[in-house]
Design goal:
There is one protein chain. The protein is mainly α. It has a two-stranded antiparallel sheet with strand order 1-2. Strand 1 and strand 2 form a beta hairpin.
Amino acid sequence: MSLNPFQQVSEDNYSKLEQYLDRLKGAGLKLPSRGGKVNKTAVATTCGFNRETFVQNERFNERLLQGVADLGLEEKKAPDEILDPTDTPKRDTADKTRITQLEQQLASVRSENYELRRRLARYEHSTATGKRVIP
C-alpha cells in the first residue's frame, strides 16, 4: 500500500522522534524539561518538526509520554551561587539612571545639531545668493 505525501511526512517525522529517543537512551540522557513537564518545543525542534505535531497526532504524543516514562526528565540546574534578590533591582536602577542620562544627552546633542544645520543653511543661502538673511 502506497502512502500519500502527508502520511509519508508523518512517518518520516515519527522515525526522527524514534531516533532522537534512541540517541538519548544510548547516551544515558534525559528529555529536556520546562516547568516540570517535557519541553515539547525543544524535542520537536531537535527532531525537525513543529510542536503542534504532538497535539495533532496522538501517536506522537503517546510515544513522547512513553519516552518520558523510559528516560525521565532533566532536573532544573541549580545555580552555582545564589544571588541576593536585592542586587538585581540596584543594578537595574543604576542601568535605568544611566540610560536616562544618555537619552538626555542625546536629545541635547540632537537639538544642537538641528540649530547648527539651520545656521549653516542660512550661511550657505547668503553665500550662494549674495543676499543676507536677517532673522
